[in-house]
Input
Amino acid sequence: MNVTKLARVKHKEIEHSIKLPVSRFIKEEAQRLGFAECRMSRAEFLNEDSARLRRWLEAGMHGQMGYMARNVEKRTDPALLVDNARTVVSVAVNYFPKEKQNPELPQIAKYAYGKDYHTVVKDMLHCLLQRIRDRYGNVSGRAFVDSAPVPEHAWAARSGIGWTGKHSLTIHPQYGSYIFLGELIIDLAAEPDPPIADRCGTCTRCIDACPVQAIVAPYTVDARRCLSYLTVEYKGDFDPSVHLHHRMFGCDICQDACPWNKRAQPTAIGDFEPNTAILNKTAEDWRRSAKEEFDALTRDSPLQRAGYEAAVRNAGACNTNDNQAAAKI
Output
């Protein structure tokens, strides 16, 4: 391509970018960065979600997750997180793995197969924010990935990323629920997207599949019963009668039961490729591992959230011979 023709192409690209509505520009840049979905919401107070969160906390369903009871106002009012907040940019990243773990081994939740999503998705969001600033100037904003007081599922539902399933997770019509969510809260106005309808219908497969009855009502999970909470967030020793149903870290039972996940597609993001050194460990391997070995193996892994002591504890509670036994929690 000669210089003149190259200049014309570049000029058309710039002209196209200038004419784009804000939301379309952000969505196109998000797609280039590898996000599976990107949609917008007005940065408004989440009145209904605030009331729902307070009821859940008052019932004590957050267990030992004391951080959930802190900054309740910030969780539902984006203006308390970013001055003059105008838009919440919600994104989804597909993490469904190409290969599954051997079911005979202590099970690791699929979101923990690869690198820590907090770092990976937040880096992607920072790149997106920089591109917004490159285009629109001094835009103030912050990136959030499941590590600050932001109700990601509420914003995902409001923007139409997906709808909230009866297991309380966001379901995308194409990728199912095996998606990481993230947000940019910015002081730049963008055209909001409409929500999409709840498509769960009368299905209760996620509720029926949970072996510990943690989904106490449609859309409501009692964390104190949840195997994901017990293996990741819960601190302390288990009663000897506790059965983790073969779960080592996290739990995908309700998601695996969801019909919408039958259409899940393998992720194209290399950082989420399975770490076979982690997935191939037996319960005995985990129990015998030294802390130094654990830390080296899980340095960039979500398993660091639970930590070494919890990993050894969970391995000891895993019953690899009978994962159908009744849980006693």
Remarks:
- The chain has a mean pLDDT of 90.
- Strands lie at 37-42, 87-94, 107-108, 141-144, 163-164, 170-171, 179-186, 215-217, 220-221, 247-249.
